[in-house]
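sanity check this record:
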Amino acid sequence: MRGDLQWHKTELAAREANGRGDRELAIQLMAQSVTEARDPSLPWHELQSALAGSALFHEHVTFDFALAVDHYRESYDLLTSSIGADARESMSFAQCMAECAAKLSGSSD
């Protein structure tokens, strides 16, 4: 169950910290959640989910588009290289990654 996984608890704590206005703690906790999700004993989709959450967080909260693009890309790579991944989800992440990359480069189209 995802709610019982440490990375997910840490991600939720990051979102709560952000909601309280503690941006630095939120950033630290989000990074920690991705590190925790890299545990090789977890299935690939846990890391993919943590990366996706981090990408969205950094794109829309911290505006660190470079980190967001990196996490979108890694998430996308996990999706496209894993058996059982949903092609529609892969395309959705490709679109998110492209839109964030455009923000990084300063263009809005």
Q: What stands out?
A: The chain has a mean pLDDT of 88.
